[in-house]
Specification:
Elements (H helix, E strand, L loop, with lengths): L2 E5 L3 H13 L3 E4 L6 H8 L3 E4 L8 H9 L6 E5 L4 H9 L4 E4 L4 H15 L8 E4 L2 E4 L4 E4 L2 E4 L2 H11 L6 E2 H10 L6 H17 L7 E3 L3 E3 L2
Helix pairs in contact: 6-8
Pfam family, one: Response_reg
Protein name: Stage 0 sporulation protein A homolog
Keywords: DNA-binding, Phosphoprotein, Transcription, Transcription regulation
Length: 223
């Protein structure tokens, strides 16, 4: 079943689109908190996004550019701002199609079906892990926070990935070292401490403080 995320602040329109798409057996959700669309997008992992231009806090162009940093998910802009300039802007920002308001729900369904058929060769999950605004890219070992991107070493990346895969749980030092050994990274107890210290420094440098916590005598965790 394809998942569709609606980013539309008019709740009547959002509910109407959701009800219609659910009738076509699409798993559909709409955003209710527009402060951090990316966090909800990563959590829901949609196959297609329906995106309005006029939104609270940040407009649709902003969120389109943020989505394109982490995903190839198809995006259809839906807006009453349907002059040529906005349509061109939407496409240039990374949108795949544009529907002008007001619109017929049958047109919406037809365009959704066509775009899913046309573009769903990539078909995998998004190669990112997101937590509290911190986005770890699994494809290129980079970390992004508030528009700042940081390159991580192989060990730093793997350590953070392990902790983010176990949010709220303590991961023992032995378990981390075992995972790193499995990925052909030579690491002992001393090296692990050095790598965690360097990782924390990189996090702190971009404003992410107290993210990796030490549980004395046990290991590390991200809450």
């Amino acid at each position: 079943m394809y998942r569709i995320l609606i980013v539309e602040d008019d709740i009547v329109i959002a509910k109407s689109m959701k009800n219609c798409l659910c009738q076509w057996n699409y798993e559909t959700e709409y955003i209710v908190d527009f402060k951090d669309v990316i966090a909800e997008l990563v959590q829901f992992d949609p196959h297609l996004v329906l995106l309005d231009i006029s939104l609270p806090f940040f407009n649709g162009y902003h969120w389109c550019s943020q989505i394109r940093k982490i995903s190839k998910v198809p995006i259809i802009f839906i807006s009453s701002m349907s002059d040529n300039m906005n349509i061109i802007m939407a496409v240039n920002m990374g949108g795949d199609d544009f529907i002008a308001k007001p619109f017929d729900l049958n047109i919406l369904v037809a365009k959704v079906q066509a775009l899913l058929r046309r573009t769903y060769s990539f078909g995998g999950k998004m190669d990112v892990i997101e937590h509290k605004g911190v986005v770890l890219s699994l494809s290129n070992a980079t970390l992004e926070y508030k528009d700042t991107k940081v390159e991580l070493t192989k060990n730093e990346f793997k350590i953070l990935q392990i902790l983010l895969e176990n949010i709220g749980k303590v991961t023992s030092r032995d378990a981390i070292m075992t995972r790193l050994w499995e990925s052909d990274s030579y690491i002992d107890d001393n090296t692990l401490t050095v790598n965690v210290t360097r990782l924390r420094k990189k996090l702190s440098d971009i404003g992410i403080c107290d993210f990796v916590k030490t549980k004395k005598g046990i290991g590390y965790m991200v809450e």
